[in-house]
Write a structure and sequence with these properties.
The protein is of the alpha+beta class and about 450 residues long. It contains 13 helices and five strands. α9 runs parallel beside α13, α10 runs antiparallel to α11 and α12 packs antiparallel against α13. The longest helix has about 80 residues. Keywords: Cell membrane, Coiled coil, Membrane, Protein transport, Signal, Transmembrane, Transmembrane helix, Transport.
Length: about 450
């Protein structure tokens, strides 16, 4: 045997030995010579053959088990397919039967189904109405209960019960009953200054809430009761005080049947001071002229009344006095006892002319104010219209509020001018008549004195 085949044999033997040694449990001893190596190779080959036989046997057993499992799985699949087919057939039959039963139920319900549809609609409408009603300020949570009931009716496949129908009926009946009552209850009220206090609130049906002589508003979204920052005219707040103080009987009260709409408009209506402020500078000038004219007229009225009383007393007195115009005119004849008729007439005319300025003093100013006031109003009207047209030029006619200021000034100044001019005209006419009557008395008495002197001279 040559060396090269021997080396290959030794290498193969070593490789098989290593493999067999790795698989064998006990590690053999290292060979000493070639005979031991050959013996070990034969033993390893035998052990490997036995192991391969055992492994092949296991593979055959597992193949039989897997074939049995496959047969079982196929049988189970066929059984499940048959069961699914049976269930599908049963489902189709049940669906047909359910459709027939549903049609029978619909036909049986008839108008009853329409009734419960109306019940749901009424429940929704009542919930919306209760949410905005001032009665909810005293009885909160009513709208939420009806909303839950409406959702329950709509989401349930069953018909509403008698108890549900009675709940809706009782809620509507309570709303109608409370709408005709005047009730008092304690509640937390947000005052105009922002403070929150517990007060006694009077509810007038489903229309208004009042407390401490002030009107209140109910905020449906938050459930708060707040005092109106701006109250209506005094006669309405006075009626609110009378209502809260009254224990029985009939009381006059400013009721808002719209639930707050009219009250909101009354609150937004400008007061007298605000209307005057809309007149601007021209309006204040007109009012100033009116005040001056009123003071002058008042002074003239008092003076003419005092002078008139003195003149009336002088007409009844036998002796003339110097504390009145008539007495001073009558004293002229005593100062010139020897004057002829023409001279005395001139002296009396002079005396009357001397008294006329005192009697008619400042009446011309009243007349001037009565003429100037409407002209000032016209000036304010023109100024307001100029402002209006400027607003239209800058912002257009899309927003009426931009033009409201100029129009308000135009109208308010016109009104103020007429308000001042009309009384001034009437006062001037009255005072002018009084003064003319007084001058007429002086002229009449002077004519009598001249006639008496003329008769005496003849």
């Amino acid at each position: 045997m040559s060396m090269k085949p021997m080396k290959l044999l030794i290498s193969a033997a070593l490789t098989l030995g290593l493999v067999a040694g790795a698989q064998a449990a006990p590690k053999p001893q290292d060979p000493i010579n070639l005979d031991q190596l050959l013996e070990q190779l034969e033993q390893g080959k035998y052990a490997q053959s036995e192991e391969n036989k055992a492994r092949l046997e296991r593979f055959r057993q597992q193949e039989q088990e897997q074939k049995q499992m496959l047969r079982d799985a196929i049988a189970q699949r066929e059984a499940l397919e048959q069961q699914a087919s049976d269930l599908e057939t049963r489902f189709e039959g049940n669906e047909t039967k359910l459709g027939n039963l549903q049609d029978t139920l619909t036909q049986s319900m008839g108008s009853l189904k329409e009734l419960f549809g109306v019940l749901q609609q009424v429940t929704n409408d009542a919930a919306g109405s209760f949410q905005n009603s001032v009665i909810s300020a005293q009885y909160p949570g009513r709208a939420d209960e009806l909303k839950q009931l409406s959702e329950q009716i709509s989401n349930s496949s069953k018909l509403a019960s008698i108890e549900d129908i009675e709940k809706v009926w009782l809620a509507l009946q309570k709303e109608m009953t409370e709408s005709g009552k005047i009730a008092e209850f304690s509640a937390s009220v947000i005052e105009a200054d922002g403070e929150k206090e517990v007060e006694d609130v009077v509810r007038v049906g489903s229309f208004n809430l009042v407390s401490d002589g002030a009107y209140l508003e109910y905020n449906a979204s938050t459930g708060n009761i707040a005092e109106l920052v701006r109250q209506p005219a005094g006669r309405f707040t006075e009626s609110a005080e009378e209502l809260q103080d009254a224990s029985n009987g009939v009381v006059t009260f400013g009721l808002d049947p719209t639930g707050g709409s009219i009250l909101g408009l009354l609150v937004q209506a400008p007061s007298l001071k605000e209307r005057v402020d809309q007149g601007g500078t021209v309006g204040y000038i007109i009012l100033g002229l009116g005040l001056i004219g009123l003071l002058i007229a008042l002074e003239r009225f008092v003076s003419l009344m005092l002078i008139g009383n003195k003149v009336k007393r002088q007409l009844k007195a036998p002796q003339p006095k110097e504390d009145n115009p008539l007495g001073r005119v009558m004293l002229i004849k005593d100062k010139f006892p020897d004057a002829d008729t023409e001279t005395l007439e001139l002296k009396l005319s002079e005396g009357i002319l001397r008294e006329v300025p005192k009697i008619t003093r400042n009446l011309t100013f009243i007349k001037i104010i009565s003429v100037v006031a409407p002209l000032m109003g016209l000036l304010g009207t023109v100024t307001g219209m100029i402002n209006t047209f400027q607003a239209i030029t800058l912002f257009g006619t899309g927003d009426p509020k931009m033009m409201a200021g100029g129009i308000s000034q135009a109208l308010v100044t016109t009104v103020l001018g007429l308000v001042v001019a009309i009384p001034m005209t009437l006062l001037f006419a009255m005072l002018h008549t009084r003064s003319k009557n007084m001058i007429h008395i002086l002229q009449e008495q002077a004519s009598g004195i001249i006639a008496e002197r003329s008769e005496r001279g003849e």
